[in-house]
Amino acid sequence: MTDKLMTWKRFAGIGFLVAGTIAHGGPALAEETAHDPLEGFNRGMFAVNEGLDTVLVKPVAQAYDFVVPLPAKAGVGSFFGNIADVRNVLNNALQGKLADAGNDLGRLLINSTVGIFGLFDVASELGLEKHDEDFGQTLAVWGWDDSNFLFWPILGPRTVRDTGGWVVDSYTDPTWYTLNKSVAARNSLLALRFVDVRASLLPSDKVVEEAALDKYAYVRDAYLQRRRNQIFDGRPPRLEDVLD
Amino acid sequence: MMNKLISLVFAVLLASPALAQDAPDVLVKRVTEEVLEIVRKDRDIQNGSTQKAVELVDQKVLPHFDFRHMTALAVGKDWKKASPGQQQQLTAEFKTLLVRTYSNALTSYKNQKIVYKPFKMNPGDGEVLVRTEVIQPGSKPVQIDYNLEKADTGWKVFDVVVAGISLVTNYRDQFAQEVRSGGIDGLIAAIAAKNKSLQGGSAKADGK
Prior knowledge:
Chain A is mainly α. Chain A is built from ten helices and two strands; from the N terminus they run H-H-H-H-H-H-E-E-H-H-H-H. Chain A has helices at 2-25, 39-67, 70-94, 98-113, 122-125, 135-141, 160-171, 183-200, 202-211, 215-231, and strands spanning 149-152, 156-159. Chain A has a two-stranded antiparallel sheet. Chain B is of the alpha+beta class. Chain B has a five-stranded antiparallel beta sheet. Chain A binds chain B through residues 31-32, 70-71, 73-78, 81, 121, 130, 132, 200, 203, 206-207, 210-214, 217-218, 220-222, 225-230, 234, 236, 238-239, 241-243, and chain B through 69, 72-73, 75-77, 79-80, 97, 100-101, 104-105, 108, 137-140, 143, 147, 161, 163-167, 169-178, 180, 190-191, 194, 198.
């Protein structure tokens, strides 16, 4: 089973390299496809994902959202939030944000102990703010700030850079890694996290559905804007204003 | 009687120039709290009535928004190619679409807490950013930022940025795509068609 996982990851890695090559080798297109030279492929994957979501993922997330009481959902959210702090500590350090790394390490220690394996986010109550970082953002801070868009089934929107970042992050993610001893436990946790994340997005479904003229373009641009915001730690410079 | 009295008082307050010139952070906080106070008490909005939410937004929020500026931002470079008449039509259609989106977000409000971040501005600033955060148990806080600019009638919001995603500039590529295929009129028609389909959908849902 571990082999299967590794093969799958290698596949993702190769896909990432191939996509990167295509993305870089493609002709310089007009402005319309500025960050999306693989739009045809991406739209195809988007359609696949929408299909999967409609028949499988969303119904499961809705059932989870309906059945599980709020305190339990909050516990699940905090638990995975705590695991994500491992990645936050590492990537803050890699970006040279040592104070934030120390802060997030403090969060990790407090929430893993006093917060009972991360089920309660005690650190936030104590005023230790979270600093979301991942390897995709680290690559951006290191200079790869512009990357082309890629849409994966299941995984959802990414860029070429963020796909690579995601693969690297999965190696430092306790959910993927230290639980290798029990594949069943690991898979259950991965599935739970996946459903929890999808359930947390349920309220925005209606908004996106109604707001978008073209859902694919709306999701793509929202993802790219959001990443830009994360890379600049919530304070991105404003884009130019065109009025008058 | 009491209700009439209260709405009269509100009308007077809203009309008074002193309040219209609130500092931008005070304005954002006052309007947010006013709106949420109403949502907390309104079961129709809590049960997903977009129409009631739209009415609320129309009444409380819209006076503080500059839709012409918002539309120009969303359209981007093509804005200057549009005639004054087209600009007016674009603004009207985009306003309808945005109000609906924004109102819908209100219907999923479930007692989340709003935190107002420390606000800094220099005297003479014509453009400011007011930062807030929505806190909910078990999920990451969601950042909501408001860009405001100073107008004669007080501070006006021209962009709302949720979790780093501008509800306005997120339309740029979609709008540019429509302009490329059908010109400015094509874009107006596309937004109008979207609004119309949403209108029809909600009428059906409300009729059930």
